[in-house]
Amino acid sequence: MNKVLAPGISLRQTKTVTFEDTAAKFGSGFLEIFATPALLAFMEHTALLLVQPYLEKGHGTVGTTVNITHLKGTPVGTSVECEATLVRIEGNSLTFNVVVTDGTYKIGEGTHSRFIIDEERFMKKFKKQDKQ
Known about the structure:
Layout: E1 10-16, H1 23-26, H2 36-51, E2 59-70, E3 79-90, E4 93-101, E5 106-118, H3 119-131
Antiparallel strand pairs: 1-3, 2-5, 3-4, 4-5
């Protein structure tokens, strides 16, 4: 590993909510507000980007568990910020606290776990399944 992966590291990302992020677009609702699936994807992506620079070449992470609460509706055009903090490492399992705010209010929070994988070995499993 290039850097030492340790609890306490964190990353913040900012994005602006677009129509592509809405419940109406995702089909998870009918309103043009930040969809829960988009909120979750933003959280996962932030955790992914946080740890990737710490991993050896050819390694990555896959999401394994999510426990989040979507606290507040957020309209298109709003700037939102996600902070992911690595809180626990158990073998290859990583656990993060994730929080999304709109500059004034917390709009989502929870925990997310990812598992470190060897990408080539992981994908070989699927190639074997295709041949059967």
